[in-house]
Specification:
This protein is an alpha/beta fold. The chain has a single domain, classed as Nucleotidyltransferase, domain 5, CATH 3.30.420. It is 46% helix and 15% strand. The protein is built from nine helices and five strands. Strands 3-2-1-4-5 form a five-stranded mixed β-sheet. Helix 2 packs across helix 6 and helix 3 packs across helix 4. The longest helix has 24 residues.
Amino acid sequence: MTVDLEGVLRRAGFLVVAGADEAGRGACAGPLVAGAVVLNVKEQIDGLADSKALTAARRERLYDAILTRARAWAVASVDSGECDRLGMQRANLEVLRRALLRLGVAPDFALTDGFAVDGLGCPSLGVWKGDQVAPCVQAASILAKVTRDRVMAGWHERYPEYGFDVHKGYVTAEHERRLARFGPCPIHRRCFGNVRAADRVG
């Protein structure tokens, strides 16, 4: 049985519930991007789901709906250099925190995918597979994914030899082949072992 977390929180007096999720944690190149969303209870957005379960075209349509119909939304990013300095776990928490703090409406409660985040000025809860069960987190995952995919398409224009427009910086067989051939570029994350190995070979 699916629990309506947002409904439970609203009935408990937390009227403004925000959700946050990130995209790009497992990628070895490009930024880590987070979205944060407060849904409008009077304007339901049909079709929300974990961004990874949606087609690119469907994500784009929902992205537009979220921007126009959500009560508040925000995105934030941590670039590859900051990922290296912080390490991926700290970078993940930091980008979620930044997105939530950028919301134009201060939340009474925040739901984050997977990890609890402190320093928000409101109570929060890390929800296991939150992007599958909480609509506000699902909306945030879509914002993060679409934003990051667009960023990676832009990086493809600068570094076309890596195929960032296809694999978006994730560790795929094709990305590994290109990384081995060309070595790392400035947006690769040196905190990943495969990038360090390619750097030594290069």
